[in-house]
Design brief:
Largest sheet: 9 strands, mixed
Strand content: 15-25%
Distance between the termini: 77 Å
Number of domains: 2
CATH superfamily of the largest domain: P-loop containing nucleotide triphosphate hydrolases
Structural class: alpha/beta
CATH topology of the largest domain: Rossmann fold
CATH class of the largest domain: Alpha Beta
């Protein structure tokens, strides 16, 4: 500030003196270094007094604090109006580092830890004043090689930390994190040593998403789990190296081929084989039907038997299935029909926050079907949804198993076992592009001998790149579930039984 800017109107300062702040563990010498006094205000109350000075060392204002943490300013200086960092008037012309805290007590705690030899500063009015203060003293801050920020370990402090980092030049800021809520609590609890250690261990700040190459050590990479959770189908499991969280996996097939059944098979396997919590969003069936399907799967009976006759299994079987699969470690979204995508993502975030490792979404097209599409129609709606799903899995670490429909394709009949490719998926190319894994199921519904067999085909696996024919599944009409039959090369050698019970829906 210039001399003119520091001119103040006549004012009557409080008379103060320096003393030890015993309750805070702060010495008189530190108070002197940091211009921090004790005195009585106009009402005769004992208050702490932070002297505010200009660059010549002249006192131009006082900031007081009483025992109930009420703050007030005496005087009407430009510092009070324009902001600035408390203590900046005593900084050298240049230096290696300056340490900035939120409050004056924390500033003194840090200064004392370094025998009052290091430049320090604090915000004039707590975390909410960071932007104004840093802009006001930007030039002074930039004189130092590093600005070390030691803000409180609470939500306002961390918010202020981000604001400060956004103002200062990239590469200049370091983050100093103390083991307790703030520097003074640390000083009182464990003494000055940890504060000094935290200073030397301060981490350079960098924008979110930037990583140094040297962070990727062989120990880190060898420790990281690349292989996913084992799938119920051995050939596909080998091709994909299992199913990983934080990925979008889509399942596609013709109408009535068994997409929902396959999705439930995966969810059931993740729950019972691996003990993972699973979320269920089946938008074309009510929650009771979804739960019935899991109970039937666990009890080894067809779903249609459970639906038509709940007494087909004993109460003990009901209890065992519900306890093993549904209770405690499964969540269900009670909704039917189209759903606005932001509402869907809110529900999914809740499931992920509640511990779900995978969420089944059946299906993508119905989410967008109720929207009043703009000129670009369904394709644009699906683009937006897929982008949100891709962001969701990375943000939460939760995997999504999403069902997609196929479009009508000239020359292909998917209900007669037509081979599926990526561009057969209905809607937008974003499904193909943003899915980590794509699984297709092919089945000939019209052939009496072949309709009980479904071929699983890997259309995409971003991790392994493996595509092509995987497992052949046979519908077990006794259990109402798929079982692994044989490699696809032996598909035509099967001799199905005469049992013509319908395959899954």
């Amino acid at each position: 500030m210039t001399e003119d800017e520091t001119e103040t109107k006549p004012w009557s300062p409080i008379k103060g003196h320096y003393e030890d702040l015993m309750a805070r563990g702060i010495t008189e010498a530190t108070c002197r270094k940091c211009d921090y006094q004790v005195g009585e205000n106009a009402s005769g109350k004992r208050v702490h007094i932070q002297l505010i000075k200009d660059d010549t060392g002249r006192v131009i204002d006082q900031k007081t604090r009483d025992s109930k943490k009420n703050f007030s300013w005496i005087g009407d200086s430009p510092f009070k109006k324009n902001g600035g960092i408390i203590g900046s008037w005593g900084w050298p012309e240049k230096g290696k580092a300056v340490i900035i805290t939120e409050g004056e007590i924390d500033r003194m705690s840090v200064s004392q830890a370094f025998d009052n030899k290091y430049p320090t500063g604090s915000l004039p009015n707590g975390s909410g004043s960071v932007k104004k203060a840093f802009i006001a003293d930007f030039e002074k801050l930039c004189r130092f090689d590093h600005v070390v920020l030691c803000f409180d370990n609470d939500e306002p402090g961390q918010k202020a930390l981000k604001e400060a980092c956004a103002i200062l030049p990239v590469g200049k800021v370091k983050i100093m994190t103390v083991p307790h809520k703030d520097a003074n609590e640390t000083l009182q609890a464990v003494g000055p040593g940890p504060i000094v250690s935290c200073y030397y261990n301060a981490k350079p700040w960098r924008p979110d998403g930037i990583r140094e190459g040297r962070e990727f050590t062989k120990e880190r990479l060898k420790k990281k789990r690349r292989k996913g959770w084992e799938l119920p189908w051995p050939a596909l499991n080998e091709m994909w190296l299992g199913l990983r969280e934080a990925e979008v996996t889509t399942i596609c097939a013709g109408s009535g081929i068994g997409k929902s059944t396959l999705a439930r098979d995966i969810a059931y396997y993740m729950r019972t084989k691996h003990g993972l919590k699973v979320g269920n969003i089946f938008l074309e069936e009510d929650n009771d039907t979804t739960v019935d399907a899991y109970v039937a799967l666990h009890a080894g009976v067809p779903l249609k038997r459970i639906i038509s006759d709940p007494e087909c299994i004993t109460d003990e079987q009901w209890d065992a299935a519900l306890a093993a699969v549904v209770w405690d470690e499964m969540m269900f979204y009670d909704h039917f029909g189209s759903l606005e995508s932001d509402r869907l993502l809110t529900m999914m975030r809740y499931m992920a926050a509640s511990g779900c490792k995978f969420i089944v979404l059946d299906h993508i097209s119905i989410v967008t079907s109720g929207l009043e599409s703009g000129s670009e129609g369904e394709r644009k709606d699906i683009d937006i949804l897929m982008t949100k799903l891709a962001s969701f899995v990375k943000e939460t670490g939760c995997g999504v198993i999403a069902i997609v429909h196929l479009k009508r394709s000239q020359g292909k009949n998917f209900n007669e076992g037509g081979q599926i490719s990526l561009n057969d998926m209905r809607g937008s190319a974003s499904i193909e592009q943003l899915s980590f894994n794509v699984l297709a199921a092919e089945r000939n519904q019209q052939d009496e001998e072949k309709k009980r067999f479904a071929l699983l085909r890997s259309l995409k696996c971003r991790i392994t790149g493996e595509t092509g024919e995987a497992d052949t599944l046979e519908w077990d009409s006794e259990r109402g579930a798929y079982k692994v039959a044989c490699p696809f090369s032996e598909y035509t050698s099967f001799n199905p039984t005469d049992d013509k019970e319908d395959a899954p829906f």
